[in-house]
Every structure is written in C-alpha cells, then in structure tokens.
Design goal:
Largest sheet: 9 strands, mixed
Distance between the termini: 18 Å
Radius of gyration: 20 Å
Strand content: 15-25%
Oligomer: single chain
Length: 344
C-alpha cells in the first residue's frame, strides 16, 4: 500500500472529522430525536440492530438489501429495525450516531466517510471502474480491505460491506457526446467537492443542489442538466424535464454499510459469522436488484420513447481527461491508480 495511507494518528483523524462536520453545520455528539419514528414489533428475546439510510422504502437498499438482512439475521437472534428516507437525518448525522452508539448500522457514501478517513472517499472518484464486475472485484478485494482496516484502527468506524448503488449518467436538453458538449452547462451534482473537481476536468460546471430541488431547478432553468443512476432518474421523473439520457457511465458508484468497531467487537464468534454471511447475501441481493432495475428501465425507455437514449457518447474522451488530471487533484491519487490497475 502507498505511504500516504500510513502514519495518520487517531487524534488527527478525529480532529479533521470534527472540523469538517462543524463547518457543515452538523451538531456532532448531539442526540437525534427518534421519538416520532414508528417502531416495529420486536421479539423481546432478540437483539435489535438499528439501520438508517437516506433512500425511499421502495429503493433496493431497503427492499432488497435491508430486507435480506432482516430475514437472514432473524435466525441468529437479531431484529433489524430500519429507518429509511433520512428519518434521523442525513449521512453526516447517521455517521455521528454510529460513532456515538446511537445506531448500529447506517448507509454512508464514500465522500461522507472521507470526512473521517480521507482515503475512503476514493470510491466516489470518476471512471475508477468501467463496469459492475470491476466494482465487485475491487470493493471486495485486498486494497479496499486494507483501507477499511486502517480506517477502523484510526477511527471508531468499520465498513462491513460495500453495496452497488448504480452507474451515473447525465441527462440534459442537448446531446452530450464529447467533453466540449458540457461547456457552459450547469450540471446538478451532490454537494461534495469531488463532483466539482471531476466535472471541471470534464469541461462541465457542477452546481451542487439537493436532490429534492433538482426537478424544479431543471424545470425553471436554474440548472441545465443533472447526473444520477438510472433508477434514481426514473424515481425522480427527470425524463419529464429533460430530453436526453447520455450514457456517460462516469461513475460506478458505491455506498458503504458502516458500524462502529465497538458494535462488531460486541458480537460473539457465532454472531459475527452470521452477521458477515447476512451482509454478503444482502450485498449480492442489492446489486442484482439495481442491475435489473437499470436494464429494465433503460429497455422500457427505449421502447416507449420516454427519453432519447444517447448511446453514442465518446466515453474514452472523458476518461482520457480524467486520467490526465484527476490523480493529481486529490490526496489519494496513488490509491486511485492502484485500484484501477488492480482491476484492469
């Protein structure tokens, strides 16, 4: 592993996390009010695992991933109690609650984990992978395992599994076939610095905006385009206010299933084995559900003419720009290249 991932002390990691969260307006260590969340009936003899995420209950993270965890862990004496749709706050708040013991599990994106341990943000990098097979190989391989082990040793956070979220593409009202076509377009992205850096390199202009505001922004012309996986584009109905789906595939995206080291250490050997087996089955179930949703939705749009599918994108031109500039723009550029090389 590269030397950039060595030598960071726990105090320095925690200090950087506290600073970043404070700047983001997150009340670190403040309890989140969960009194209004309806609790499912719980077997009094079972151990409750509280699992929070940002997605709608119909999203595969809940309907496939969490559902699989619930079924598989029931036999091991656990009750999985889920909090979908950001019921206890955003990913920053979810991470805080995991760190302080208010939650056992949560879905945390790589950029948010990067607040606590910078190298963990690498999975939000553009063109790190070209397909789901490469994604699976790397996220279950030794390089990321070492990153997560080092993160666990230097913070209180443990990545238990990495799930496929989808492949991001760009929708717009003009065809985007090459980088120059992005010039002058305001592209809605999540509010994370990596997106701003990536789109600047690809000749675009990232405009951070909440997902809930993107439809109206497109409708009113405040933004010109947006980028998301196909299932998200479908759920948000962006095809109603955009003419083209441009298959850029610029990010094969991950979400991390995170707990505290204290929670993992509290499991007996048998419980840990059952927990890890359930996590693996949930990972596969989520991946398969999302891949199926991507394929079926794309086929439906092609058949119905819901949105014009532009599959004539010069993806290599975008990849070339990223390859030339991106590794030097981030502190974990060597790690980015190491992961790419491992799956080529």
């Amino acid at each position: 592993m590269t030397s950039s991932r060595r030598g960071r002390r726990p105090a320095a990691i925690l200090a950087s996390a506290l600073t970043a969260l404070a700047l983001a307006g997150c009340g670190l260590w403040e309890p989140v009010d969960t009194s209004q969340i309806e609790k499912a009936a719980v077997d009094p003899d079972s151990r409750v695992i509280r699992f929070a995420h940002q997605y709608d209950p119909a999203h595969p993270v809940e309907s496939c991933g969490a559902a699989t965890l619930r079924t598989e862990l029931a036999d091991d004496g656990f009750t999985v109690e889920t909090y979908p749709s950001g019921q206890i706050g955003g990913e920053g708040e979810t991470t805080e609650q995991i760190a302080t013991g208010g939650l056992e599990l949560g879905v945390v994106g790589p950029s948010f984990l990067g607040v606590w341990y910078p190298d963990a943000a690498v999975l939000d990098a553009p063109f790190l992978f070209t397909d789901v097979d490469q994604f699976d190989e790397a996220t279950n391989g030794p390089i990321m395992a070492e990153v997560y082990d080092e993160m666990a040793a230097e913070t209180v956070l443990r990545v238990n599994s990495t799930w496929y979220y989808g492949t991001r593409h760009i929708t717009s009202n003009v065809e985007i076939t090459e980088p120059d076509d992005l010039a002058g377009l305001k592209i809605r992205t999540p509010d994370a610095p990596l997106y701003i850096t990536s789109f600047a390199i690809m000749h675009g202009s990232a405009t951070p905006m909440a997902l809930s505001e993107a439809y109206l922004g497109l409708q009113q012309g405040a933004i010109d385009a947006q980028e998301n996986p196909i299932p998200t584009i479908d759920v948000q109905k962006f095809y109603e206010v955009q003419d083209y789906l441009n298959l850029t595939g610029h990010m094969v995206q991950a979400v991390n299933i995170v707990s505290s080291e204290k929670f993992v250490d509290s499991l007996t050997a048998d419980e840990k084995a059952g927990f890890e087996d359930a996590m693996e089955k949930a990972r596969v179930a989520t991946r398969d559900c999302i891949v199926e949703a991507e394929q079926e939705t794309l086929q439906t749009w092609e058949d119905d003419g819901t949105i014009t599918i532009n599959d004539d994108v010069d993806v290599a031109a975008f990849q070339s720009l990223i390859a030339e500039e991106f590794p030097s723009k981030v502190p974990w550029g060597d790690l980015y290249l190491e992961i790419q090389e491992s799956v080529r």
